[in-house]
Amino acid sequence: MRRTVKDEQEGRRRATSTDVARESGVSRATVSYVLNDTPNKHISPATRELVIRTARRLGHVPNPQARALKTGNSNIVLCLVPALTLGFVFDHALDALTRELARRGYVLLVHRISERVDSRAVRDIWKYLTPTLVVTIGGLPPAETAVLEKHAPAPVVSDYGIVEHGRIGQLQADYLIDRGHRRIGFVMPSDPALHAYAMDRAAGVTRACEKASLVPPVVAIVEESLKSYGNCLGVFERAGVTAACGHNDDVALMLLEALRDRRQSAPGDLAVIGADDIPLAERELTTVALNAEVCAASITNKVLAALGADNDLAPQGQLLSLIRRTSA
Description:
Layout: H1 5-11, H2 17-24, H3 28-35, H4 45-58, H5 64-71, E1 76-81, H6 88-103, E2 107-112, H7 120-123, H8 125-128, E3 133-136, H9 142-151, E4 156-158, H10 165-178, E5 184-189, H11 195-211, E6 218-222, H12 226-239, E7 243-246, H13 249-261, E8 271-276, E9 286-290, H14 292-307, E10 320-323
Parallel strand pairs: 1-2, 1-3, 3-4, 5-6, 5-7, 7-8, 8-9
Antiparallel strand pairs: 9-10
Helix pairs in contact: 2-3, 2-4, 6-14, 10-11, 12-13
C-alpha cells in the first residue's frame, strides 16, 4: 500500500531543540543561540559546528512562528500575486526583488491568490506564516489593498501606481490617432489575473479617444486561442475598426498571427500596437516599451524602504517610451 505524506509525518516524531541538545551534549539555550544565530553570545566554533551538524542529522527544522516570536523578525517577505507569471516585465521585477532581498538577509516567498484577499484561503496563510512584510504585485486595486491591510499580520506594500497603466493605453491610442485612425479597438485577455491592469489600460485608450472627439474604443475580450482572436478581427471589421491596441505584446502578437491566418496583414488591414516590448516584439511590433530595469528598481526600492533597508537602485532611462516598428 502506498504511503502518503501524512502517513510519513505521523510515522515519525519531529526532532526538537531538546533532541539536538541531548545528542550534542549541550544546553537547550546553546542550541537556540546557535540555530537562531543570536548576537553577542560567545559560542566556540567547535560547539557551533557540532550543533549545526547534529541538527542536520536529526532533521531538526526550527519552528518559524516560534523563531519570529523570539526575534521579532521572520525575515520572510510574502509576495501575493494573481498569477505565477505576470509577463516579461513583472517577472523581471520579481527576479530583481528576490535578488536584492537575499542580499539583505530576507527570503521572498511568492504565493498565488486566486480569490479575494479577505477570503478564508488568504486568511489561513497567517496560521502557517508570520512574514515581516506583505507585498502585492499584479495590480491589486487600492480598495483590495485596504482590505488586506486590515487582517494581514504585517505591513502591506503594493506595486499599484508604480506603472501608470492608463498612461500606456493613452500612449497607444495617441499614436494611432496621430497616424490618422478614427476607429480604435482595444483587445484584452480574459485571464482574471490581468483584469486590473487591462481595465486601466482600456481606460487610457478611452480618454485618448475622448480627447480627440472620437467615439469610445471597441473593447474585445479574447481567449487564448487563434479562433478567438479571429472572431475578434471579425468584430473589428464589422465595426469599422482600423487600428487596435493590444493589452500587451502577447495579445498584439496573437492579433498579428490571426491576421496572417486570414491572409491579411498589419498595418494595411489593421494597424496593431502592443505594450511592454518583450523580446518577441522586436521583429515587427510597434509597442509602448515598459523599461524592465526601471520598473524592477521602482518596485524593489519601495519594498526596501518599507523594510528600513538601503534602497539605492537608480537605473537610467524613462519608464515608458514608444517603439515604432512596421505593425502600425
